[in-house]
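Reminder: ligand-aware prediction takes two inputs, not one.
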Amino acid sequence: MRFIGNKERLVNWIFSEIKANNVEGSLFFDYFAGTANVGKFFKQNNFQIVSSDLLYFSYVLQKAYIENNTIPQFEKLLSTIDITSRKLVADNFDLVLEYLNDLQGIEGFIYKNYTPNETSNRKYFIPENGKKIDAVRTQIEQWKNNNLISENEYFVLLACLIESVPFFANILGVFAAYKKDWDRRALKPFELKRINLIQSNTEHFVYNVDSREILNKFNYDIIYLDPPYNQRQYAPNYHLLETIAKYDNPEIKGVSGMRNYDNQKSVFCNRDKALNELEHIVLSGKYKYLLLSYNNEGLMPQNEIIKILEKKGKVILKEYDYLRFKSNSNGKSSNKKYIKEQLYILKKNNG
Ligand SMILES: C[S@@+](CC[C@H](N)C(=O)[O-])C[C@H]1O[C@@H](n2cnc3c(N)ncnc32)[C@H](O)[C@@H]1O
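Here is what comes back for the chain with S-adenosylmethionine:
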């Protein structure tokens, strides 16, 4: 998924650096989960994961990719409803996705508020796709309310929806605004895509809270911090994914139809508060190793970060030139920019 600060393309580098620096352990806290890509990578590499994010749609992804350890079979659902496939499908999961993809659209919250029609002029989706998203979201909720799907199955289907929606949205990377003219991607008929799940025999724990609340819950081997780098809050940039995930008919405002996000503001979007919060995490001592991903353009200055980290042990700083995700780059090379991605590694002193 396109997500500001997504570490999908950096996890291999992060992993090689921590191995090269003898960072070891098994309990890994992904403190700022976002897409859950970091947790996914470490789960695949046999770590036990704890993760959290302020955003509910991130929690949906964490439930599906991190906490869930199986490929859902949808046995109860398939025994009670009539699903006959018209295509060659690989398994039950595909069968259920095909059923959802074949639903008739309905005029629900997304259609009414985020497509151009008699009640709205917002152009996030073409009307047909808005109706399709409503139909899929409503059906998943009904199956859950009728006890036809398990909690895991519910979150896996929701995660498929969340991962699929951006491919049909008429936006430039983030949902804070829609494009004036239709992007080609938005004109394709909406289709739910299957996600790749990770099987494991270990119990993993995921949350939808300010991670400060679970800092003291476990003794972590590794805490991985990937905070917001600048003043831009995440919630307004991804408000529509939040609304599709929650599907709670929120009061919405303004040109972009934004939901209220007062409870989802991160202190890391403010320089002084971020430094205080970093110090709080460092001084908690609930880790053997603390990793911090940041970059040379972030709000917290490098010397201040190092001063705080050194209160608990030895600090190593690794850097990597990285092509920045720009929401309005449109693929034009003139708008692309290299930044220095940084990885601070703190080995906590004994005692
Ligand atoms: C840079 S992104 C993380 C990206 C993530 N590593 C990935 O690969 O997708 C920062 C994330 O931290 C979340 N966040 C900010 N402050 C938080 C807090 N105090 N507790 C939990 N999550 C927080 C934001 O909602 C956002 O999803």
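Strands lie at 27-30, 48-52, 205-207, 222-225, 252-253, 258-259, 289-295, 313-323, 338-348. The pocket of S-adenosylmethionine is lined by residues 3, 5-7, 32, 34-35, 37-38, 52-55, 58, 210-212, 226-228, 234, 266, 268 (CB under 6 Å). We will return to this case in the review session.
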